[in-house]
Amino acid sequence: MIKTLSSMYPFWACLIAIITAQLVKPIFVYLKTKEWSWDEIFASGGYPSSHTAGVAALSLAVGLQEQFSSTIFAVSLAFALIVTYDAANVRYYAGRNIQITQQLIRDIQVITEMKLEDPIYLTKVKEVLGHKWIEVIGGIFHGIVVAGVIYFLGVSFI
Question: Which InterPro entries is this protein grouped with (predicted)?
Fold first, then answer.
């Protein structure tokens, strides 16, 4: 069977994977906490990783459309590996550093009995920036499923 997918299939697969990954995050939070947290739709971090869902979908879609031996597949795979590593390591540890820094500020204020009043110490910073490996693996799986379903159903985008 000849696939009639548009040349934009990799882009749409990537975008749909990112959006659907964000949309299912509140469901996984509910399963874990028994509380709905609709803010998770717009949050970074959490299960599944939308970053890795997007790049996994992109790489699979490029491979299916352009052949897995193509240069563009190699480029998309390299991009996916960099984004995946970043999501699970660099961004995760940046978030951990924020948590440590905030705790140090609280400890210094308690130990010295001083209130640090410089606005920099009062800045609200998001602590969860990256992902645990299980969240990244969930994102990879999600992206592969999304790109595969679109491809095998032959969904065509205008």
Answer: DUF212
Rounded to whole angstroms, the Cα distance separating 146 from 59 reads 12
pLDDT tens sequence across 100-141: 888 888 888 888 888 877 777 777 766 666 678 899 999 999
Q: How many CB atoms sit inside 10 A of residue 31's CB? A: 9
Tell me if 106 is assigned to some domain: no
pTM: 0.78
| Vertex 35: Cα angle to 29 and 41 (nearest 5) | 45
Between the alpha carbon of residue 156 and those of residues 5, 52, 146, the distances in Å are 5, 23, 14
State how many domains the chain has. Answer: 1
Alpha helices in 34-132 (DSSP H): 50-66, 71-85, 91-112, 119-122
DSSP state of 47: S
